[in-house]
Amino acid sequence: CQEEQHYESSRLRKVFASKACRMSIMIGTDLTRKQMINVVRHLGQLAKPWVNKKQIHLIEIFEFII
Question: Which residue has the higher pLDDT, 44 or 47?
Fold first, then answer.
């Protein structure tokens, strides 16, 4: 029974991850100053602000912006 629950939770995680990815801000998207400030503010509140190893570390993005 636990395997079945694990399978379902794994499947749900993939669905949520896919939805979150599609809702993210894509590189090249024009943002207003207010939107940029809002994004940086929210990123500062994250407990684990790093991304997966295939993507650029957020610090590198901040250094580019600032």
Answer: 44
